[in-house]
Amino acid sequence: MQTTGREPAAAQAVATHELTRTFGPVTALSRLDVTMPRGVVGLVGANGAGKSTLIKILLGLLRPTSGRAEVLGLDCGTDGPAIRRLVGYMPESECLPPDVSATELVVHLARMSGLPAEVARERTADTLRHVGLHEERYRPIGGYSTGMKQRVKLAQALVHDPRLVLLDEPTNGLDPAGRDEMLGLIQRISTDFGISVLVTSHLLGELERIADHLVVIDGGVLQRSTSTADATRLSGVILVEVTDRADELVARLRAIGARVAEGGGQSFTVEPTDDAVLDAVQGGAADLGVGLVRMQRRRHHLTEMFREQEVTDVRR
Ligand SMILES: Nc1ncnc2c1ncn2[C@@H]1O[C@H](COP(=O)(O)OP(=O)(O)OP(=O)(O)O)[C@@H](O)[C@H]1O
């Protein structure tokens, strides 16, 4: 796969402005204002959060009720044909015809997107090889496993050499090994070919592993838009474990105003406001004659980020 020199100038993969979509009484997206950079962006949300609705609007398959959206700097309302040339789409639903082979289907879709016959055949062979379909690509799709079908859907999204692919729940229905393989493939689409990716999932851990940036929506409302590095930033909390007398060390730290939370057994966490607190942990352990088993920074994980969100919601 090569880049084609038709890269639009926009720095952002996606931008939405006050984007709203309703279906009768249901509000699928509510005044969504978000920008998504190039690279791999993970769109996280529970079932019904509005992920598929957003993707369909970005592709021009659905019109917004109000507000607007841009893909690669192009307006989704008016630049549909240009967007479809530059964007590939892997739908969530089962949509493959059972009685044709992967090769026949992907060549057909490549030709539909405007590629000449010979180029369509070459790119189909390259793309199917890239997604890991080999001899089986000549067999009817009806006999494929779920993982193979997902690869065919991915291949058809890539065959016309897009600048951005929108992948709707690509790991759905896969076993753990199949998920790992699909996630690896998605990452390589970005790193090896420079194609930006917007991938949806309701599984946080998946997107934490492969996305550069995360967008979280719930009930059609933006919850967070953050780089993955920031989401998993060092929390500044130090986890301490000593061989004995943890309660006495905790009391000493509290006496100098440190914020300490007791853990199980001989462990606790402390927020080091300055070096004096760290010195007090080490000095206190030495004074008490106990060994320091560990003293390490903890990282935030996405699941904690969500837990924080829930806590905030409960307090509101
Ligand atoms: N064509 C439609 N007609 C009526 N309601 C719809 C339609 N499409 C989506 N909805 C509703 O809009 C809300 C958002 O749906 P959407 O499919 O975008 O969510 P999602 O995050 O993609 O979830 P899922 O993973 O379950 O598909 C849901 O309440 C859904 O029932």
Structure description:
By secondary structure, the chain is α/β, with parallel strands linked by helices. The protein folds into two domains: 12-226, P-loop containing nucleotide triphosphate hydrolases (Rossmann fold, 3-Layer(aba) Sandwich); 234-299, Alpha-Beta Plaits, CATH 3.30.70. The chain contains eleven helices and 14 strands. It has helices spanning 51-58, 80-86, 102-112, 117-130, 146-158, 176-193, 204-210, 228-231, 246-255, 275-288, 302-315; strands at 12-23, 26-37, 40-44, 66-71, 74-75, 87-90, 164-167, 196-201, 213-218, 221-227, 234-242, 259-262, 267-271, 292-299. The strands form three sheets. Strands 6-7-8-3-9-10 form a six-stranded mixed beta sheet, with helices on both faces. Strands 2-1-4-5 form a four-stranded antiparallel beta sheet, covered by helices on one side. A four-stranded antiparallel beta sheet has the order 12-13-11-14. β1 and β2 form a beta hairpin. It is elongated. The chain starts with 11 loop residues before the first strand and ends with a helix. Adenosine-5'-triphosphate is lined by residues 23, 26, 28, 45, 47-53. The site of adenosine-5'-triphosphate has 11 residues, from β2 and α1.
CATH fold descriptor of the largest domain: Rossmann fold
User: Low-confidence segments, ≥5 residues, pLDDT <50?
Assistant: 1-6, 308-316
Quote the average pLDDT. Answer: 87
Q: Count the beta strands.
A: 14
Number of helices: 11
User: Going across the major beta sheet, what is the strand order?
Assistant: 6-7-8-3-9-10
Encode the helix/strand succession as letters: EEEHEEHEHHHEHEHEEHEHEEHEH
Strand content: 25-35%
Oligomeric state: single chain
**Which word captures the global form?**
elongated
Helical amount among residues, as a percent range? 25-40%
CATH class of the largest domain: Alpha Beta
Beginning-to-end CA distance, first to last residue:
50 Å
Integer tally of domains: 2
Going by CATH, the architecture of the largest domain would be 3-Layer(aba) Sandwich
GO molecular function: ATP binding
Family: Belongs to the ABC transporter superfamily.
Protein name: ABC transporter ATP-binding protein
Domain ABC transporter: 14-244
